[in-house]
Amino acid sequence: xxxxxxxxxxxxxxxxxxxxxxxxAVPSTIDFFEIAPENWIDxxxxxxxxxxxxxxxxxxVCHGLSLSLGGLTPLDEMLLKKIKAFMAAHQIDLYTEHxxxxxDDGHLYDLLPIPFTEEAVxxxxxxxxxxxxxxxxxxxxxxASYYVAAPVAELxxxxxxxxxxxxxxxDLHLDVNNVYVNSVNHGFDPVAFxxxxxxxxxxYLHTAGHYQEAEDLIIDxxxxxxxxxxWQLLDTxxxxxxxxxxxxxxxFNIPPLVELVSEVAxxxxxxxxxxxxxxxx
Length: 281
What we know:
Blueprint: E1 10-13, H1 19-24, E2 32-35, H2 45-55, E3 60-63, H3 77-90, E4 95-98, E5 101-103, E6 107-112, H4 118-135, E7 140-142, H5 157-168, E8 171-175, H6 176-186, H7 190-195, E9 202-208, E10 211-214, E11 217-219, H8 228-241, E12 246-249, H9 257-273
Parallel strand pairs: 1-2, 1-12, 2-3, 3-4, 4-7, 7-8, 8-9, 9-12
Antiparallel strand pairs: 5-6, 10-11
Helix pairs in contact: 4-5
């Protein structure tokens, strides 16, 4: 497995809408960027040149969207080989993916929950190990938001996450907003959930905004500002589990860069409050 460069601080999703503003100046508050490799691998022309200009000067993370680690269709090894080449070309060290599935004889365009069973643990962990073998690096898996409980649940979500991490020997990408969303949608204590996360495996964090459909239903849109309870939960995450590189997700309804930078700055302020700028990834 390849050794990772140190990733630290607070980051922002790299969106094409933001490129003109970022070309003018990258605010010092932004320590790194994140991209979905599927959206960039086969691009040429101006967008490819723009990306190269930024990856040569700034750290990047790859966050996958379509590997479908829990899917029943064969693992997309061709995609993994493309991702490996893409990461090497742009000197990107960290790759993360969702602990979910999004394929069934085709892409489903949604992230769906994996049954929390021992059988699923072994199946998903095998696919993660294979992905790590192809990429020649450890990857981190992200706890996913979900709206319908897994059809079969021999294990709790916490137990399932622990079992997959141990069986696959991979790292954890902890999405704090997803913890909050699931806690509202499924009625559990998010702080109790966080207390059970394995701090030693956490290499990366996400926070984001969402849409409140009803009192007991939140849709994980990444299309709004982070709300105060999620900021408080991020603060609690740092207190309980330590500080890790943390990204602000904003996938649509993208405001001017200055507004996003204020949220990235708040991440950095919380990191500084807890006594260190970052945990090495």
